Amino acid sequence: MLSRRLLRNLDFVTIATVSLLIMISLVIIGSATHINTPSDDRYWYVERQGLFALMNVIIIFVVLNFDYRILGKFATSLYGINLVMLIAVMFVGQSALGAQRWIQIGPINLQPSEFSKLIMIIALADLLDKKKGRLYSYKDIIPIFLYVGIPFIFVLKQPDLGTALVFLAILFGMIYVAGIKTKHLMIIFGSGLAFLPIFWHFLKDYQKMRLTVFMDPNVDPLGSGYHIIQSKIAIGSGMLFGKGLFGGTQSQLNFLPENHTDFIFAVIGEELGFIGAIFVLLLYFILLYRGIKIAGSARDNFGTLLATGITSMLVFHVLVNVGMTAGIMPVTGIPLPLMSYGVSALTTNMVSIGILLNIYMRRQKIMF
After folding, report:
1. Burial of 4 by CB count in 10 Å (0-12 exposed, 13-18 middle, 19+ buried)?
2. Does 147 map to a domain?
3. Do the domain assignments include residue 146?
4. Total structural domains in the chain?
5. Given this model, what pLDDT does residue 367 score?
6. Which residue in 40, 352, 348 sits closest to 335, CA to CA?
């Protein structure tokens, strides 16, 4: 059991912030889905999300009872399990919305690519920790990119471009903190930009269309551009104070697709208005700020890398999802952390928060 000293070191700001985000999430999911559920229960989605949120609280408590450094001992095994899961999706996965990403386990659809983000963070943190002080040449850097590149390709094959891009955000955030030279980082970025015209030819037709409608949604207003157009209408119509819970026309009348998952921020903008949207963004800012502080106060390099990877993942998710709903980012299918409906994403994010709390709780010095 946790000692009183460790409990006193818990990051209560992060706990309060996450609790508020989840409570807001349940209210918004209820508003977005109460007239469109797969059963007679109007709040089926809310009850399901709430149940798994409570289950994840128990998982977090279990996570806090173990020193986070033990994760490094299982990094190689976790990396192998990750590859097995991603390969299994290719053969026994369930298809939905043009992608084969889910594995059916009883009544639950699990998305291995969601769990693979956290596994990749743990495995990469262990690898970079072992290479501490040895990231000064391409001979040292290239194996790291290959290490991440293998699961990256499997995820891209599903196809799940959004999650694949999250891998890159995690990778660049962690190698930067690990001490890669700025010169090498700029050369890698430049090479990536130069490769984009070639990468375009490997994209699926629907992915190319998403990038096209990002520039001009009216190219296909009833197809690929429909999501962006309806999302911008929803956010804009909310104005300053919103239309009130259960009062959003775009969401309630089902004009806004995926209103409880990828486009839940548009529901917030429509029903809670600019004030509500800013409040939610403020909560995310606090959470991400605490993630950075936890990375800086970790007792060892492994803890710093873990916290950096988790924070990089959350930053990318928030920026891309909010940008996507506002029409300033392409539609990629990336959920809003702790807010969008989804068992796999919620579990990944909650366990990640548990690891952050674990790192902060066992820090050497108390930092604020």
Report:
1. exposed
2. yes
3. yes
4. 1
5. 42
6. 348
